[in-house]
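Board notes, transcribed. Complex of a protein with zinc ion.
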Amino acid sequence: MESYLKRFMSERHFQLPEDRGMVVFSNDVLRHIYKYAQTDFWDCEAGGQLFSSTPEKPLVPISLATGPYRQDRRTRCGFHPDVRKATEDRIQLFSKGLHAVGLWHTHPEAWPTPSDCDRATTKDYLEAFQGDMDGFLLAILGNRGNPRNLTVWMAWTNHTQPWLLLPEIVAIARER
Ligand SMILES: [Zn+2]
């Protein structure tokens, strides 16, 4: 039980809508993403794709975060993944049983919210990507908080509904 709690505390959990379960960011994935937090003024936005081994399960583990790559277009206020590299990754990782379930990137703000540019980039990405899911995850890392603020949004591939902010589930460690 203690080791379960310890693991729970090092992972991060976000509630999916309509009893679909939870998205779980592993410690390794979080460590990779945290490295790119825009804590200095001149840091550029960074990002990449999120992959899961079992996206159909009630606990959707985020098994791997790819990127950033040199070919991405990165500025302080914009991130545009290199489409060719992203497609190569998806084909290669799919052969290893990993499914693309989302995108991640960083923002130079404490509590990150999607910009108009993010919505346009995501729409382009999803149009190029023939996924069989109706929902897609957007994770945005802020530059404050310990652990760093991470907001996770559900985008719908048919673009008919507004993006949904997924509530984070935080374990409370009880002192005895
Ligand atoms: Zn953004």
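Residues 79, 105, 107, 115, 118 surround zinc ion (CB under 6 Å). The longest strand covers residues 99-106.
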